[in-house]
């Protein structure tokens, strides 16, 4: 039986990430602890100590990150308990994300060679491989969000079933909250007819009604989860954390325009440290700007048509990126800029669209450079920062 190419791409990605992970189980397994809490019928975790980021609130400790990875871990934790390997879920999600990326490229009409280049970039030229091979609570959230965003984009260029786009979109949002900003864009793309077809109110209505049919119960469940944790319908977790964090402030919002210059510097300027001793180039704990780790993202500017999809993808990228550019920290404890993984699926989709006719040689050079830098970051964290 012939294996579908997108499935094969996912399997190769799975093997690559698994090897890079060394099968280690991350000690920062907040989602395993949250899954265990769900199994016991509550939202607070049994807190093992300060090495686990959890918000102290009303006498208990809560994981403030979006809960989907914990929900996915529930069956595994039910069997293995807190010995469950959270990193393995990150490996699986990364593999699915790469398989979806290949499928997206095929549906857009990109040739096999260009698709290989583009998928290599997404895995190794961004922070995806680095996040997935570590699997820490903060990192697996990014991997999960990218995975489900790519699945949503595949459906948008396929059958455009509104309920399925919404389901994947909600899963992405429940992995990383910034992905809520993409939901209106998905609705827009669902309503726009494919190239060469006239607008049909009936088709648009069917797609959007299915979209709403998923979003409404998802919103109600989210309100209920917030009520269970905080006693209010709003999610106050990140704000409360900001008030307690030494890097934050005791009042106000963690999203402020005053943090924009710091984020612009982080995303576009911040260099690694160079030295005369081994390893000569050192990525500091606060990360390295996208300009130096992932310059191949510039290929997104080659995308032109279909116009409606291109506009939607750029809009989603900007909207999803906005919270990260106003946040009080840039991600810290990272290689590259891990927050970029939230909006990079949309830029990747634009790269794919731009490569339909051909992938220019300079683009391949930038992809190769990005992948080499990404692999260097994986090596550095494996060999030096988390050796053993």
Question: Can you describe what's shown?
Answer:
The chain is mainly α and 388 residues long. The protein has 16 helices and four strands. The protein has helices at 5-21, 30-39, 68-80, 86-108, 112-125, 128-134, 137-156, 162-173, 183-191, 201-230, 237-244, 260-268, 290-293, 307-326, 344-354, 361-385; strands at 55-57, 60-62, 273-274, 281-282. The protein has a two-stranded antiparallel sheet. A two-stranded antiparallel ribbon has the order 3-4. A hairpin with a 6-residue loop joins strand 3 (273-274) and strand 4 (281-282). Helix 5 runs parallel beside helix 16 (361-385) and helix 7 packs antiparallel against helix 8 (162-173). The longest helix has 30 residues, at 201-230. It is globular and about 60 Å long. 48% of the residues are buried. The mean pLDDT is 95.
If helices are DSSP runs of H or I spanning 4 or more residues, what is the number of helices?
16
Number of strands: 4
- Sheet with the most strands, sense and barrel status: 2 strands, antiparallel
First-last Cα distance = 40 Å
Tell me what portion of residues adopts beta-strand conformation. Answer: under 5%
Key phrases:
mainly alpha; globular
How do the helices and strands line up, and which of them pair or pack?
Layout: H1 5-21, H2 30-39, E1 55-57, E2 60-62, H3 68-80, H4 86-108, H5 112-125, H6 128-134, H7 137-156, H8 162-173, H9 183-191, H10 201-230, H11 237-244, H12 260-268, E3 273-274, E4 281-282, H13 290-293, H14 307-326, H15 344-354, H16 361-385
Antiparallel strand pairs: 1-2, 3-4
Helix pairs in contact: 1-4, 1-6, 2-3, 4-5, 4-6, 4-7, 4-15, 5-16, 6-7, 7-8, 7-15, 8-9, 8-10, 9-14, 14-15
